[in-house]
């Protein structure tokens, strides 16, 4: 493939913008199974061709996007609480995990796409038998053009309130934006359209996010109450994790 760096290389300059564009198009389902032509950043640096043939599988290889269970494992190692769960590749294994967890569970298709809930790829199961049935229904199907080879079986956590949080790297000016929304569980685009739906904080490269500033951010989003100190602490921890991992996006949205 011409015009895209190898997957293990760091992207910069025009390559960063190309990756963000391709990632967005892939996430929105605008890249299908046919090859697409895109302007190549290589034309700026060389006398090579001005276009590159980009196939969906090559875009997916170039865009590093962790699956949910991988991301949760990384965050848990940094002291951030996540639900108990396990990734499995068979319905019987899903039943066994659900039995070990006890109580209701959630069975999620492990694919690198969003809006899994809308596509029926996230299912609640009241008992181990239902968890096995949910896994059997998901394994082997396609979600967003990706085959479901594994599912995540995790405990269903009672929800008191839902919040939205995103930590986004702006590769153009190397700043980091922290976005906080008082409502979670909905698409961020819809949340952004609501007046005061999302509060934003911009930090310079190397700047640390202290818990008190995180609390101020959540107050700006309209969040109050006794959970605010813990919310500020968790936000600071997630920000630190995103910086240490050199992540372009860390998003938490139930």
Automatic annotation (TrEMBL):
SUPFAM superfamilies for this protein: Glutathione synthetase ATP-binding domain-like
Pfam families, per database record: ATP-grasp_2 (PF08442)
Signal peptide positions (record): none
Presence of keyword ATP-binding: yes
Domain of life: Bacteria
Keyword Amino-acid biosynthesis: no
GO biological process, one term: succinyl-CoA metabolic process
GO molecular function, one term: ATP binding
Keywords: ATP-binding, Nucleotide-binding
InterPro entries, A to Z: ATP-grasp, ATP-grasp_succ-CoA_synth-type, ATP_grasp_subdomain_1
ATP-grasp domain residues: 72-170
GO cellular component annotations of the record: cytosol; succinate-CoA ligase complex
Protein name: ATP-grasp domain-containing protein
Source taxonomy: Bacteria, Pseudomonadati, Thermomicrobiota, Thermomicrobia, Thermomicrobia incertae sedis
């Amino acid at each position: 493939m011409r015009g895209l760096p190898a997957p293990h290389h760091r992207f910069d300059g025009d390559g960063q913008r190309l990756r963000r564009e391709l990632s967005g198009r892939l996430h929105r389902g605008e890249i299908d199974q046919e090859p697409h032509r895109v302007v190549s950043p290589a034309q700026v640096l060389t006398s090579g061709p001005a276009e590159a043939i980009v196939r969906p599988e090559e875009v997916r290889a170039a865009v590093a996007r962790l699956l949910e269970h991988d991301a949760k494992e990384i965050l848990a190692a940094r002291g951030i609480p996540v639900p108990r769960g396990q990734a499995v590749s068979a319905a019987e294994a899903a039943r066994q995990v659900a039995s070990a967890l006890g109580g209701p569970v959630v069975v999620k298709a492990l694919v690198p796409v969003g809006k899994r809930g809308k596509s029926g790829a996230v299912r609640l199961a009241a008992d181990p038998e239902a968890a096995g049935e949910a896994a059997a229904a998901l394994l082997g199907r396609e979600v967003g053009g990706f085959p479901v080879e594994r599912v995540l079986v995790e405990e269903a956590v009672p929800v008191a309130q839902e919040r939205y949080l995103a930590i986004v790297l702006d590769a153009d000016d190397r700043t980091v934006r922290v976005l906080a929304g008082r409502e979670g569980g909905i698409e961020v685009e819809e949340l952004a359209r609501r007046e005061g739906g999302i509060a934003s904080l911009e930090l310079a490269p190397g700047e640390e996010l202290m818990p008190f500033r995180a609390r101020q951010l959540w107050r700006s989003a309209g969040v109050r109450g006794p959970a605010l100190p813990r919310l500020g602490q968790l936000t600071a921890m997630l920000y630190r994790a995103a910086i240490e991992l050199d992540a372009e996006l860390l998003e938490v949205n139930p």
